[in-house]
Description:
The structure is a homodimer of 208-residue chains.
Chain A: H1 6-22, H2 30-37, H3 41-47, H4 51-74, H5 80-97, H6 101-112, H7 121-140, H8 149-166, H9 175-185
Helix pairs in contact in A: 1-2, 1-4, 4-5, 4-6, 4-7, 5-7, 5-8, 5-9, 7-8
Amino acid sequence: MRTKTPEQAEKILAAARRLFGSQRYHEVRMEDVAAEAEVGKGTLYRYFHDKEELYVALLARCSEEFLKRMEEVVAGDGSTRERLEAVVEAIIEHFDGQPNLLNLILRAEVMAEGGGEFPWQEARDRTPRLMVELFRDAETRQEFAVRDPELMALVLLGGIRAVIRFGEQPRTPGLAARIVENFLTGADTRSTTPVVGRKSTSAHSVRF
Amino acid sequence: MRTKTPEQAEKILAAARRLFGSQRYHEVRMEDVAAEAEVGKGTLYRYFHDKEELYVALLARCSEEFLKRMEEVVAGDGSTRERLEAVVEAIIEHFDGQPNLLNLILRAEVMAEGGGEFPWQEARDRTPRLMVELFRDAETRQEFAVRDPELMALVLLGGIRAVIRFGEQPRTPGLAARIVENFLTGADTRSTTPVVGRKSTSAHSVRF
Lengths: 208, 208
C-alpha cells in the first residue's frame, strides 16, 4: 500500500497537467488533483509534498517532452533549412497545443526568484544550442552560413516566443517558413532581390 | 497634513524603485519603503493601499518612461535605418540600465493572471506599433521595405528581449547595429552577397 509506483506518479502528473493547464495556480487545490487522479490525498502527498513540488515536477516533465520533440525534429530528414523550418513549426505547435505552458513557465520563473528550482532551465539552455548545431550543420553541408550564430539563435528563439505569445491567431499557413525565410534572407524585400549595390539607399537602386 | 502632494508621491515611487529594483518582491516591506522615502507609514498608506498597488504604480511609471524614450528616439534625426538602430540600442540600454525591470514585468504579468491590472500593457501594445510605423517610414522614404511588417515587428522585439535576458554580458560594441543588419539583410552571410541564383544549395554558388 505504501510503495510508490511509476504508474501512480504518471496518473498524478496527468491530473496535475489537466488542472494547472486549465486553472490559475492559486485555484488548483491538492484535493482536486487527488480527486482528478483518483488517488487518496494521503497517496498524493506521498508523491509530492506540496503544490509547488507538484508544479515543479509537472514543468520538469513538460521540459523533457519539449526537448525530446526538438531533438527528434533536429535529427529528422531533409535539408538543414527544412529541418530549421520544422523546428520553428514544432516549437509553435508545441506551445499552441498547450496554451497554458508559457504561463506555467512564467510563474515558475517568478517562483524561482526566491532561490527555488526553475524546471524549464534545461529546455532554455539546450534549445539555443540545438539551433546553433543546426546552423553548424548548414555550414558543413554548405547550405547556408549564419553570421553570429549564438546571437542569432537567441534572436530567432525570442522572435518565435513573441509570435507564440502575441502573434495573430489562428496562425497563418506557412508561418514557420515565413519566419525562417525572413530570418535567413532578411525582412527587407530588397534583400531577396540580387541587385548590385543594394546597400545604397538611393531610390534608383530600390524596387517598390 | 492630510493632503497628497505630487512631490511626496514622487519620493515614494523613487523609494519603491530602489527597493523593488534591488530586492525580491516578498522581501520588500511597506515600512522599508516608508523609511526609504522618509515618510511615515500612515502617509505611505494614504498614497498606496498595499504593496501590490505600489508595485503596479511603479511599473506603470516605468512603462511611461520607456514609451517616452522610445517615442523620442523614433522621432529623432537620421535615416530610418539609423533610427531603427537607435531604437534597438535604446531598448537594450533601457533594460540594461534597470536590470530588475524584466523581472518586475514578469511578476506583474503573473500577478495579473488573477484578473489584476497589468501596467506594462501599454508599452507592450505600443512598442510593436512604433516599429511598424518605422517600417512604413522606411517605405515612404524608399529606404527599405519590410515584408510582413506586423509579424516582423514582433519577431524583432522578441529577439531583442531574448538578447537582453539571455545574451552575452557585457554587450559587444555595435550589438544593435548587428541585430538590425541581420534583421534587414538576413542572418545568412550569403544573403548580403548578391549572387545570381543564391537560393540554390549547390556548393558552387556558395562562398565559404
